[in-house]
Design a protein that fits this description.
Length: 361
């Protein structure tokens, strides 16, 4: 089902006014809580930080971690490792961010790049801290995540895209996350769920929450995450999922459903899914969700998608868990009667949910 989770930014960060400024043009030795305002090359590891690592507070600059590590203290309420707050044209590169509630967060702004960063062991706590991703894009647009290594984060996603909806706080950013590119990242083993353990893990490799539209997910290696590999939630349409390797999801769960390789939820329409290799996932390989009836009314399924030239074989790797909404599983699955306006074309597969999925040329 679609997610009802609501993100509120900055629940656990130090106020910006408490942070110290950095004015070095090149090399810099920084401490926890430093506020980056110029081009900076890090000369030391930073941490352990009890309440946030570094905040990038100026546009058009480069933060080169220079192979160093920014790290928190395992446990809740230690904030974000690197926070790009309402800035544009920033590049963060070449280092490790670990042991915070969330690794790198881009909040607001646009045209930022995070590249060649290892984001690992960043674990939030549902109900205690707002984070829970290796890298998160929060109501920001036209950013690029390239060549990052993202593993052992949770409890929400390796990479998460969110539309923040709480505008009551004066420092909260709002609006959709759109136009972002997630390219050539390795997103693996994000399975940690402190509250529910592995059997109920909710963690996706890439998670585009409600109304995160016009994004591109290409050439990523998405392997062995807790729930789904790549999930587009309600209204997250007009996106491209191309050339990804998506394998080994949903192998731990035993509740409601196990997890699929690529899943597109209700009203996430007009997506292009092509040239992906999707194998050995617990439930479906590629799944388009049908119309459902909820307490607020009828929610249409995922429609007007193109699914072509994918290889989806060896999925349904665990026994199906009966459920009134999540139906029987297959390598290719379309829950909409007669596929509605979804086009399935030239895919290689072992099993399909209905003839319109497998019989189109």
């Amino acid at each position: 089902m679609t997610s009802t989770r609501r993100r509120v930014a900055l629940l656990i960060l130090l106020p910006l006014l408490q942070l110290t400024g950095v004015g070095a043009a090149d090399a810099a030795i920084l401490a926890c809580g430093a506020r980056i305002t110029t081009d900076t090359v890090l000369e030391n590891d930073v941490g352990p930080c009890p309440a946030g690592g570094l905040v990038v507070a100026a546009s058009g600059i480069v933060l080169d971690l220079n192979g160093h590590r920014v790290f928190g203290q395992p446990g809740p309420t230690d904030g974000l490792g690197i926070h790009l707050f309402r800035v544009s044209g920033v590049t963060v590169r070449n280092g490790t961010v670990s042991d915070f509630d969330g690794g790198v967060a881009i909040e607001g702004g646009e045209r930022n790049t995070v590249e060649f960063v290892t984001a690992r062991d960043n674990v939030g706590r549902a109900g205690i801290s707002a984070a829970g991703e290796g890298i998160a894009i929060l109501s920001s647009r036209n950013n690029q995540l390239y060549g990052n290594n993202i593993f052992s984060n949770g409890p929400f996603a390796g990479v998460g895209l969110y539309t923040l909806i709480d505008s009551s706080h004066p420092r909260t950013t709002s609006g959709p996350s759109t136009g972002n590119v997630v390219d050539s990242n390795t997103i693996t083993r994000n399975v940690i769920d402190p509250a529910g353990g592995l059997v109920n893990t909710q963690i996706a490799g890439i998670r585009a929450e409600n109304n995160s539209t016009h994004n591109t997910y290409v050439n990523n290696r998405v392997v062995n995450n807790g729930l789904d590999g790549i999930s587009l939630f309600r209204g997250s349409g007009n996106s491209v999922i191309r050339g990804n390797i998506v394998t080994g999801h949903g192998l731990f769960r035993n509740a409601i459903r196990r997890g699929s390789g690529i899943i597109v939820f209700n009203e996430a329409n007009n997506n292009l899914i092509e040239h992906n290799l999707v194998t050995n996932n617990g439930d479906n390989g590629i799944s388009l969700r049908p119309t459902v009836t909820v307490t607020s009314g009828v929610v249409p399924g995922s429609m007007n998608n193109i699914v072509r030239n994918n290889t989806a074989v060896g999925n349904v790797a665990r026994p199906y868990i009966p459920h009134p909404i999540f139906g029987p599983t297959a390598d290719l699955h379309d829950g909409n009667p007669n596929c509605d306006n979804n086009l399935w074309q030239d895919n290689r597969y072992g099993t399909a949910s209905q003839p319109c999925v497998g019989d189109r040329p």
